[in-house]
Amino acid sequence: MTMRANRVAEQMKKELGEIIGQKIKDPRIGFVTVTDVEVTGDLQHATIYISVLGKDSEKKDTLRGLNQAKGYIRTEIGQRIRLRITPELKFEYDTSVAYGTRIESLLKQVKNEDNEVEKE
């Protein structure tokens, strides 16, 4: 990404957190955290990575709700960030949070097993 695309991505991340948390009233959208935003170099497309607390069904409902509110979110972004063309939005799950949690639980499991071996 170019330097400008990075700045736009960071600003979008900040604004998206506020828009999703305060402006959208869809009951399907649960507790959402915008973890990252990637904007193409030409500022035409933006991929928004989100993490959602809850079950898989709640995550799917949240993604469906965000996709339906995509037009509203894009309009809000366009009003808040002055760009000639507001990027097309694409929402995706951020699997790195779940991956990190899984690694952490495995490390704790190994540590507990080591402690048990030392006690014997």
UniProtKB/TrEMBL annotation:
<dbReference type="InterPro" id="IPR015946">
    <property type="entry name" value="KH_dom-like_a/b"/>
</dbReference>
<dbReference type="InterPro" id="IPR023799">
    <property type="entry name" value="RbfA_dom_sf"/>
</dbReference>
<protein>
    <recommendedName>
        <fullName>Ribosome-binding factor A</fullName>
    </recommendedName>
</protein>
<comment type="function">
    <text>One of several proteins that assist in the late maturation steps of the functional core of the 30S ribosomal subunit. Associates with free 30S ribosomal subunits (but not with 30S subunits that are part of 70S ribosomes or polysomes). Required for efficient processing of 16S rRNA. May interact with the 5'-terminal helix region of 16S rRNA.</text>
</comment>
<dbReference type="Pfam" id="PF02033">
    <property type="entry name" value="RBFA"/>
</dbReference>
<keyword id="KW-0690">Ribosome biogenesis</keyword>
<comment type="similarity">
    <text>Belongs to the RbfA family.</text>
</comment>
<comment type="subunit">
    <text>Monomer. Binds 30S ribosomal subunits, but not 50S ribosomal subunits or 70S ribosomes.</text>
</comment>
<keyword id="KW-0963">Cytoplasm</keyword>
<dbReference type="InterPro" id="IPR020053">
    <property type="entry name" value="Ribosome-bd_factorA_CS"/>
</dbReference>
<dbReference type="InterPro" id="IPR000238">
    <property type="entry name" value="RbfA"/>
</dbReference>
